[in-house]
Amino acid sequence: MSESPIVERAQRFLSVLRHCQVLGISVHSAEPEGLVLRLPYSEQIVGNPETGVIHGGAITTLMDTTCGISTVCVLPEFEICPTLDLRIDYMRPAEPNKDVFGFAECYRVTETIIFTRGYAYQDNPDEPIAHVVGAFMRMGKPADLQRPSKGAGQ
């Protein structure tokens, strides 16, 4: 059975982000209501070796990426949408030796801006590590997708 088109688009988007490959971030789920990415725990992302707590920068990367890729859940086709604004409120540190999940949804889409919100969690989404809101600029389809195909009268 093949995966949904939204999951495939999210995976394709994630696969071109080198920093996400290095961190091991993967698509956990994707549907029109939102996206969940998974950041696996590793020693390389520990911010405090004495406690084993994940560095906040890794969680920021997870949440920026989750919000940015959540745009594929609501747009009919892939568009370039760079981050305009991102706010993260940290509620508590992530527990050591546990993966972190990031959920994001697009709650408003305009012609030029997409507004997102979400949260990072470990075992229970009702006990968030952080909350996030973000705004992403719609720049349209990449140039190579806007060109007419060769065979269409060329």
Automatic annotation (TrEMBL):
<dbReference type="InterPro" id="IPR029069">
    <property type="entry name" value="HotDog_dom_sf"/>
</dbReference>
<feature type="domain" description="Thioesterase">
    <location>
        <begin position="52"/>
        <end position="126"/>
    </location>
</feature>
<dbReference type="Pfam" id="PF03061">
    <property type="entry name" value="4HBT"/>
</dbReference>
<keyword id="KW-0378">Hydrolase</keyword>
<protein>
    <submittedName>
        <fullName>PaaI family thioesterase</fullName>
        <ecNumber>3.1.2.-</ecNumber>
    </submittedName>
</protein>
<dbReference type="InterPro" id="IPR006683">
    <property type="entry name" value="Thioestr_dom"/>
</dbReference>
<dbReference type="InterPro" id="IPR003736">
    <property type="entry name" value="PAAI_dom"/>
</dbReference>
<dbReference type="GO" id="GO:0016787">
    <property type="term" value="F:hydrolase activity"/>
</dbReference>
